[in-house]
Amino acid sequence: MSSSDQPFFVKCPVCRHLVPWTAEQEFKPFCSERCRLIDLGEWVMEEKRIPGEPLEQENDDGDDPFFQ
Ligand SMILES: [Zn+2]
Known about the structure:
Layout: E1 9-11, E2 18-20, H1 33-47
Antiparallel strand pairs: 1-2
């Protein structure tokens, strides 16, 4: 038997570093905060390509049915 405390390892999606999947590894699956921010930045850039609707509400016309 040779398996007990071996942590599960994942690869950092940014730099391919092996990262132990432990509670102290707060940036998992990334090896560091830096890699996480890099990946997050790329993800946000891809998100921007998806057309979205502007979230604007016209709530200022004083026509509130509950206001009676
Ligand atoms: Zn990394």
